[in-house]
Amino acid sequence: MGILKIGILGSVSGSVGPLVLCKYRNKEVVKSKPKKSSKPAVQSQIDQRSKFKLVTEFMSALATTIEVGYKSTNKSCSAMNRAVRYHLDNVVTGVSPNFVLDFSKLRLTNVKRASIFDTEVISMTGRILELTWRASEDADDALRALRDTDYAMIIFYGENTQMFLNRSRMAVRGDRNHSVKFHSRFAGDTIHAWMFFLSKDGKTVSRDTYLGEHILIA
């Protein structure tokens, strides 16, 4: 790979014959086109591609939430890239070719410190889930940094319908509860849920909590 000195042509990109012109880390570079391998993919490569497809397709539906939960000052790696890397390493389970996601390990934020809130979800008739939350008894001084105005970021996923329901910013920490009535298309579905809190200025997030799986009652 070589570095280009930009002249009267200004910034350039694209390909010329066997060469590719592009920008890398704010520098104009030239490199050779990658050669297509004639060797068939080995099973480990096939498995890795299957895992990558599984993770990226699921995470793409959560792109907005991931941008909030995985944001960083490190501009060399995007929020989505960090999220995909974590889930490839920690969340994919199963035996080839039947890979699945372990929803209990899925993470919507990259905050390491444990949540200081206890949560409960109750499934009620009419396809309703009732969420409540309160500070853990051992929260002590950590509560001083919390604000009742923090937004509750709540994400639901229907295992059977494979559909998401985003209830972010529909409640605040001070509400202590939030009720959700699901559309009839979710009837009888097994719902997985996650929640975390976001400061009103959008700069601070808490560690997310997996709220378990719940069957909707008609």
Summarize the entry for a quick read.
This protein is an alpha+beta fold.
Q: What does the radius of gyration come to?
A: 22 Å
Q: According to CATH, what is the class of the largest domain? A: Mainly Beta
CATH topology of the largest domain: Immunoglobulin-like
Strand percentage lies at: 25-35%
The CATH fourth-level homologous superfamily of the largest domain: Immunoglobulins
CATH architecture annotation of the largest domain: Sandwich
Helix content: 10-25%
Element-level helix/strand string:
EEEEHHHEEEEEEEEEE
How many helices?
3
Description:
The chain has 3 domains: 2-32, no CATH class; 43-105, no CATH class; 117-215, Immunoglobulin-like, CATH 2.60.40. Helices cover 17% and strands 35% of the residues. The protein is built from 3 helices and 14 strands. The strands form 4 sheets. Strands 9, 10, 11, 13 and 14 form a 5-stranded antiparallel beta sheet that branches. The longest helix is centred in the N-terminal third of the chain and has 18 residues, at 43-60. The radius of gyration is 22 Å and the shape is globular. The mean pLDDT is 86.
Helix-strand blueprint:
Elements: E1 2-3, E2 14-16, E3 19-24, E4 27-32, H1 43-60, H2 63-69, H3 79-90, E5 92-95, E6 98-101, E7 117-124, E8 128-135, E9 151-158, E10 163-166, E11 171-172, E12 177-181, E13 190-198, E14 209-215
Antiparallel strand pairs: 1-4, 2-3, 3-4, 5-6, 7-8, 8-12, 9-10, 9-11, 9-13, 13-14
Helix pairs in contact: 1-3
